[in-house]
Amino acid sequence: QQHVEQGFALGTWVGTQRSARRCGMLNAKRHAQLERVGIVWYPRDLAFNRGLQLLLAYRDREGHSDAPWKHIEQGFRLGSWLEKQRCAYRRGTLHADRQVQLERTGVVWSQQDFAVNRALKLLLAYKYREGHSVVPLRHVEQGFTLGQWLCRQRHAK
What we know:
By secondary structure, the chain is mainly alpha-helical. The protein has 7 helices and no strands.
């Protein structure tokens, strides 16, 4: 909103055009002109789409979509962005289409669910490889103390 280009308050003017469009007050000619120059009607969509693309890259590289809170991906605060999406989900203010997009990338809404899902995947991998799920107490699978986790689950009944 505060961007000035050659002495002209361009940010304010663009904001006015966006408001006029939302209110149905932007005439068709002006709308077409702005479309031709590539106006972004919803700037927040840009940030969401950038976050989503970076989350996909993170997932493809790391094997999961649970970026740590302080994680920065290509200069973008991905972990912080992801936490904001989770907060919006918990408050019920995350748009349904965004929720679907995030879930398709593998986002799990609670950290506890993420940990359980990861442990179950590791247990399945162990069972597939070993032919059983009798995991020794001290067994570690991909850096995760699978044997201890399974023991805790058995005792939590």
